[in-house]
């Protein structure tokens, strides 16, 4: 299957028509210079730095879709930070704040969390980090998500909505107007913030009318609780319907899609990525390292605590033979270039048409610094072809 989708004259015409007529955001210029800003060796003001120390940043910043919001080319995902009562591989507060501090020092100013991560602990820790590290609110981009039921303690987990409701969590999941407003209020309390920069729907809600959801999201923005809105893993037709409803009714449209995409999972390239390009929506994929599988040789596939304990990683077993071939090729390219496997995998992600910034999560400070180095890695067309060739189609993973 094709690994990229070229924008031809016909699709470009549709793209321009939809955006110029319907959305408040002007299409981005084709010239990369209009989209990307690089800050290298810049001394950050002392009043904005943890402990009053000076720091040097070397990071690239890019507009999120056709909006005016700029995000770092690498986004730090905060699912990894919270409570071990929620997941054994999670880093708790002290270590989490060290990682957030290091990320900011490296130039990452965009952070993605969700209310369901450690049932609110991830948001709480990030909010504390913002205060404790004195992160400048006018610079950092705070992204969170809502949809799932947030348990009262980190240990509380529910297989589905009916189980949550049976345990006293009625109206505490999904994308109803009531839940959206309640969830935003609680997220802001945990984050100790007046607003988030991007409020994202974690999943599509089959039980709530799209009209209700999009009006509620628009009203959240109008109320000042969020600056922008985004969507996460869903089918392309669902995203298309939600975005079109917002556009046609002059409501706030999505500026981002947080979807599942990596060298080991490329199903989004069939329908979702062309849809995002048509609407001028930025792509910020989760799991670009396939839960770490792309960061180490096949012989070390169980090398980390998370790879052994995170149930999400088990989906890789369904296409294990093809995945192992891809992982081996990542290793080959890494050796030939004298860089890490993680840098190769993220460099591939950054090379893809329509990509804004992958979301990475790490429990190791050295790995974090290594991954950030991937923004300076350029793969040749031959290397990209070598990495992509073994891929085989697979079932949808990440949404229903």
TrEMBL record:
PANTHER family: NAD(P)-LINKED OXIDOREDUCTASE SUPERFAMILY PROTEIN, NADH-SPECIFIC METHYLGLYOXAL REDUCTASE-RELATED. Pfam families: Aldo_ket_red (PF00248). The keyword Oxidoreductase applies. Keywords: Oxidoreductase. One of its GO terms (cellular component) is cytosol. This is Aldo kereductase. InterPro entries: AKR_Detox_Biosynth (IPR050523), NAD(P)_OxRdtase_dom_sf (IPR036812), NADP_OxRdtase_dom (IPR023210). GO terms for molecular function: oxidoreductase activity. The keyword Oxidoreductase applies. Residues 73-389 form the NADP-dependent oxidoreductase domain. It comes from Rhizoctonia solani. It comes from the Eukaryota.
């Amino acid at each position: 299957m094709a690994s990229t989708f070229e924008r031809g004259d016909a699709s470009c015409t549709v793209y321009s028509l939809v955006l110029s007529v319907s959305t408040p955001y002007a299409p981005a210029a084709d010239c990369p210079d209009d989209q990307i800003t690089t800050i290298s060796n810049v001394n950050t003001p002392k009043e904005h730095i943890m402990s009053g120390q000076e720091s040097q940043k070397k990071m690239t910043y890019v507009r999120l879709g056709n909006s005016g919001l700029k995000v770092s080319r690498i986004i730090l995902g905060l699912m990894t930070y919270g409570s071990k009562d929620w997941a054994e591989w999670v880093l708790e507060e002290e270590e989490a704040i060290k990682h957030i501090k290091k990320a900011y020092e490296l130039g990452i100013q965009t952070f993605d969390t969700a209310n369901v991560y450690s049932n609110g602990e991830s948001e709480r820790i990030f909010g504390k980090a913002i205060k404790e590290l004195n992160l400048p609110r006018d610079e950092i981009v705070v992204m969170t998500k809502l949809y799932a039921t947030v348990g009262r303690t980190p240990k509380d987990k529910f297989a589905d909505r009916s189980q949550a409701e049976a345990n006293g969590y009625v109206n505490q999941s999904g994308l109803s107007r009531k839940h959206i407003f309640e969830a935003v209020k609680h997220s802001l309390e945990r984050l100790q913030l007046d607003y988030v920069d991007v409020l994202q729907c974690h999943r599509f809600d089959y039980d709530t009318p799209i009209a209700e959801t999009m009006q509620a999201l628009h009203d959240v923005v109008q109320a000042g609780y969020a600056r922008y809105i985004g969507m996460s893993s869903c089918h392309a037709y669902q995203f298309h319907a939600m975005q079109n409803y917002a556009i046609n009714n002059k409501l706030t449209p999505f500026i981002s899609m947080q979807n599942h995409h990596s060298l080991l999972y490329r199903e989004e390239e069939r329908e979702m990525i062309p849809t995002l390009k048509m609407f001028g929506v930025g792509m910020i994929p989760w799991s670009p390292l396939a839960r770490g599988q792309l960061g180490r040789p096949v012989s070390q596939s169980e090398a980390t605590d998370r790879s052994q304990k995170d149930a999400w990683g088990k989906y890789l077993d369904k296409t294990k033979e093809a995945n192992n071939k891809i992982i081996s090729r990542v290793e080959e390219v890494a050796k030939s270039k004298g860089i890490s496997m993680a840098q190769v995998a993220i460099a591939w992600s950054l090379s893809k048409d329509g990509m804004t910034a992958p979301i990475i999560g790490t429990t190791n400070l050295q790995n974090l610094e290594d991954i950030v180095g991937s923004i300076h890695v350029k793969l040749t067309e031959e290397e990209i072809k070598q990495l992509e060739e073994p891929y085989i189609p697979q079932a949808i993973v990440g949404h229903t």
